Amino acid sequence: MLTKIIIKNLAIIKDVEIDFKNGLNIITGETGAGKSILIDALTLLSGGRASVEVIREGEGTCEVQGIFDTSDISKEIKEYLSENDIDIDDELIIRRVLQRNGKSRAYINSIIVTQGYLESLGQKLVSVLSQHETQCLFQPVFQLELFPERTIRPLYLKPYTMPEMLPHTEKILCQVVLICWYLSFQNAGTMNRK
Description:
alpha+beta
């Protein structure tokens, strides 16, 4: 889970740190408040291509850093990192630096990686769904990926007693509410087209 993002000199942002908490995090704001800059930062962290135009005017570099809690990271991701000699403990730190001359560097836990490697990892680690890019929400495999292995997945595998489920209830409910909220808008849009 992404726990913190640090953005320096990206578009109009000089320096900002955003902490994310467990459960549902919603980012709102008026037009021009910078929500899309946060999406751009996540795209950079997940290996997306970058242009020097995103560097803040008057600055030589732009830097985006994401800190991920590794307790909910899948075995697949841990193995992928291990195969490439990247050690992870409690945190996975991804950093991307863009220079005005067009050069870009990517780091995972202080180890330099290629943009291609970061993109491959990013596809496993981060899902950035922009407007009209939400079709994957209807795929059962993606739906299961929304829930960490220790929350809803064990419910499919074995019966749980109520005391065992209580610590996970808030997280599960937040995720279910988000999916239902999204699907209600999809259904409303479908009904309005008829």
